[in-house]
Amino acid sequence: MNREGNEEIALEFVDRLSDSLGFDKERIQHLFEKNYLARNWGKYEHLLRFDKEISHIEHGTVLYEKGSSFEFIMGFPKIRRAMVLYPTLKKHFNGLSKLAVEEKMNGYNVRVAQINGEILAITRSGYICPYTTERANVKLNLKFFDDFPKLVLYGEMVGPDNPYVPKAIYDIDSVEFYIFDIREKNTGNPLPTAKRRELMEKYGFLQVKSFGEIPLKTAPEEIADIIRKLGIIEHEGVVIKDPEMIFPPLKYTSSQSNCSDLRHAFRFYNEAGRDYMLSRIVREGFQTVEWNEDETEFKKRCMQLGESILNPLRESLRSVKNSQRLYEEVRIRVRNLKTASDFEDYLKRLGVDAVFEEPYSVGAEYLITVRKLNKSTNDKTQAIWEGELW
Amino acid sequence: MNREGNEEIALEFVDRLSDSLGFDKERIQHLFEKNYLARNWGKYEHLLRFDKEISHIEHGTVLYEKGSSFEFIMGFPKIRRAMVLYPTLKKHFNGLSKLAVEEKMNGYNVRVAQINGEILAITRSGYICPYTTERANVKLNLKFFDDFPKLVLYGEMVGPDNPYVPKAIYDIDSVEFYIFDIREKNTGNPLPTAKRRELMEKYGFLQVKSFGEIPLKTAPEEIADIIRKLGIIEHEGVVIKDPEMIFPPLKYTSSQSNCSDLRHAFRFYNEAGRDYMLSRIVREGFQTVEWNEDETEFKKRCMQLGESILNPLRESLRSVKNSQRLYEEVRIRVRNLKTASDFEDYLKRLGVDAVFEEPYSVGAEYLITVRKLNKSTNDKTQAIWEGELW
Q: Given a cut of 90, is residue B182 above it in pLDDT?
């Protein structure tokens, strides 16, 4: 195909996209130029993703051709955070009588949908992850997607074989998908929470734990109790929802989850975002004041905060001092070795510096250890130990 | 004067400045347009300051007309930080046999010089502070500037009547100027440390404490001891210098100083820089590993870090919850009430939101309490207590 032919196709494509999005053509061209609208690669090249929120289209929204038109899989709506439960819940959900409270799990956000006959797993940013896609096909009841081709599952991939956020706190052997939301293609409209639970149960899907529907009036105290209990078992927190899913949900997390985030951030202090660190610290401040903690509880919180920061920092600095490279060791479990090599290519495309060990077979599957290198923190630390200035 | 006349003067001025700096005229114009080269205001309008480092001219450098040419007062050279003492000192000062070690005091950097017959105090950024100028004229032996009109004193304004960094740790009643550097006008060349000490002593100036000259070989251990002792009395740290002032100095600080910085930063968490916070935390990590601390010392450091963060944060959040506005209370002591009103105008020009209380006289002088308001942290915190999301 010659260059002119290519351009003609592109122009015709832009024309149709312009009609579908209701943006003028110059704007579409501009989005492509800036890579705000970008293609996935390889065999998923036909799946476009929004790399930025554009006019209320969420970041991570995916779109592709469907017949002569386009189909959209809307991104994850950003869930805002209540820094304090009172009066935030009352103000935000003003007029509701009850709130649906569900567990916020610590895993990796993924959307699963049928796209042109295939079941694909889409990351928060709109990439098609080959590993997550294989796991979704292995783990999920695929009949659901034939019965409801217009619905998209929004869930959390959780467990030790999750190479993004591996957590051993959930009593899961490998990885599982916990569904927390179902939305329609194109509109992004969500199902009410009860309807979603009923449908998921019927097909045997795992779902995030529900703490039931709680009266708005008593929600701040009741949710504080739930959070304290979740904290004890190192779980993350809750998402608080309008049962009809009309008001946008809010999240609220445990102190242990803040500290766990800090432990990870300070292990790789030169990679982690400064705002990420600060926000978790400030949450600790609001929680201790909101909960009116006494001096004993406060001292404990100070110690936990100090240790969550200095312990991982010390560990990393010591490792580098002892000439050990810093990395994060994660694990994947695949049915097909091709999935592992696709995943390796995929991480490379995303700029992740990862070393895949030799696979070893476990039953019908293979376990593979992956070392993700943290070059920035490693190099900075090494330079300082060698006498470089800050 | 008509507009054309003004422009003619400006062009002639740019011509001469261009000759003096060796920059072409377009570049000078550009520096003015970008405000990288800016005028002080009011009666100091003739003093220009570099608001940015330009071609090795330090940020804060001041220049003014002197006869048909220009005279320069070079900015404070940025002193880089040793994150660890070994091997940094050995590498940085490679070839020297001895290092001059001096106390780094916690105050406000100021240059004092005679400019067209007046003794003026210039801040780090190149502003003429009316308060610091009055204090310098009251406190310093002005004969020095008549004897050495070409020398500039670089020092620290320290003590409780310092409205920028008030510290009560130095056993100073009001404010004093501690000299740490003397440099020539125009070249910025520094005097060797011994020569500077001798000269300052002769004129009765206060100087930063000297820990003597220490062999490079044993410097890491000896300086670590000094730092531990300074830490116990809550002092900041040291500046480590080539006695001949040919190699640039390095600084190194105590854990207590890091924690003190953090206490201030987290009290006004929405104003303080994220990088400022992180760097102080990371220093704690390097120091505990470099000093090979045991678990008891480490736990103590964790607790100190946690408390240095959460205590001031809790205090601020509580204050706002109790409807108290957040501010920092500082104090000035003036001989002339006009200085106070000039200083009030000056802070306003700099965008500092400050309330000056009524003066009360103490001997021949006046004490005035100044409340510097921390609008950003105040408003953010108040919004959260009222139910706003993060």
A: yes
Check whether domain B327-385 has CATH 3.30.70.3360, yes or no: yes
CATH class of A256-321: mainly alpha
d(CA B111, CA B76): 8
Architecture per CATH, domain A3-73, reads as Roll (3.10)
Contact B354, B344 (CB under 8 A): yes
Instruction: Compute the distance between CA of residue A176 and CA of residue A162 in angstroms, rounded to an integer.
Output: 9
Q: What pLDDT is stored for residue B3 in this prediction?
A: 39
Kindly list the residues from chain A whose CB atom is less than 8 angstroms away from the CB atom of residue B82: 389
Note the pLDDT tens digit of each residue in B22-31: 899 999 999 9
Total-model pTM: 0.91
Q: What is the spatial distance between Cα A121 and Cα A142, in angstroms, rounded to a whole number?
A: 13
Task: Please answer yes or no on whether A310 and B305 come within 8 Å at the CB atom.
Answer: yes
pLDDT on residue B9: 56
Angle between helices B295-321 and A295-321 (to 10 degrees): 130
Inter-chain CB proximity B302 and A307 less than 8 Å: yes
Does A51 reach chain B within 8 Å, measured CB to CB? no
Identify the pLDDT of residue B93: 97
Q: How far is A388 from chain B (nearest CA, A)?
A: 6
- Please check whether the domain covering A81-251 is classified as CATH 3.30.470.30: yes
| Residue A1 pLDDT level (bands cut at 50, 70, 90) | very low
Look at A313 and B282 and tell me if their CB atoms are within 8 Å.
Answer: yes
What gap in Å lies between CA B370 and CA B355, rounded to an integer? 6
Distance CA B48, CA B63 (A): 5
Predicted pLDDT at B1 = 36
- ipTM reported for the complex, 2 dp: 0.90
Domain ranges of chain B: 3-73, 256-321, 327-385
* CA B112 from centroid of its chain's CA atoms: 13
